[in-house]
Amino acid sequence: MALGGAGIISYGTLYYCVGAIAKEASLDLAVTEEWILGCFSLALLASALISLAAGRLMDGYGAGKTMRVASFAGGASLGIAAMSWNAVVFAIALFGMQLASAFLFYEAAFVFLVQRDAVHAKRQMALLTLIVGFSSTLFWPLTSLLLISICWRQVCWIYAGANVFLALPLIQVALGGSSVSLGDQNKICSQGQSSSKLIDLVLIIVGFSLTTFVFSALLARMIPILSSIGLDMQGAALVSTLFGPSQVAVRLFAASFTERTSPIQLTMLSCLMLAAATFVTILASHSLVGIAIFVALVGFSSGLNSICRGSVPLSVFGPDGYGARVGLITTFRLSTASFAPFFFSVIQNNYGIGLALASLTICAMGSTLSFALVSARSNWESSR
Length: 384
Fold this sequence. Notes:
Layout: H1 2-29, H2 33-49, H3 51-61, H4 63-83, H5 87-101, H6 106-116, H7 121-132, H8 135-149, H9 152-175, H10 182-193, H11 198-220, H12 222-228, H13 233-240, H14 243-257, H15 263-283, H16 288-317, H17 322-337, H18 340-351, H19 353-383
């Protein structure tokens, strides 16, 4: 609960608030809103590129310690944003915020849970994503309400204080939890070592990179996609609200069944739902029911995927070197996702929405195949 509360604050203040304050900040700093968002995109890419180094630091010093430092650094970066006297300083603050996020968001929290209690980490990951999933629900309206009565700089100051005086103590509370015995940790490690081969890691990286590519393309262009397949802007905005509740619903399901279901099986289910979502849209274009099923399936798939990104590496390789592996996977999948909206827009503008969605279906099926191969290799090695 404490770690989930810290995650809500981290995501809300370091990620979701940027889009909300971008317009006012651009007017104040005499640049375009696109310039602000472009710097934000570059900062996200920089965060992806340091994920491997972040994972290794968490392995070496402990995720709890690095999270505490990052929470303070995130708050300091928000303070710099609040004081920024020109757009360049604001851009530097954005980079500081996103570099700190590499030590605070889901993957970092997963490393924390594995280091704290690897035996029960898979179930705790599901519960954590369920809690942190409310961040956008809370912070999008909160930031909008604050901007009605105060300026964007004051919002940044408030959010800086939230990181230092709320998130940081919550992380400290989470650090106070007890760990399982070393024997139990070693038991998990020995279970995972038989599959600890380079080919499994490559397949997992490919699988998660493909799914993140599809999610990035769909979520960045959700409203235009819904408009192009038969809804007006108002209807598209209304139907898109199914995404959040779908994520929450599937995480409730995962929290109940994660101990009894293989993480690879859950991941394959997530990939199949993603492929089914884009395929349904191709078949049921201009159908309100079909479009609603599309949005719900994307939400289901995304909710499961966020859990599986943590549980699959633990299940296949064990807790030894977990942070570095998760960091390596994150580097590849977020770097791949960074150009997905551009790729999708080019395909859609030149060849139509049908072919653009079909290309995403192929990516989703490719990710399913990658994880199916990991599962098959694991079963083959077990039979030996």
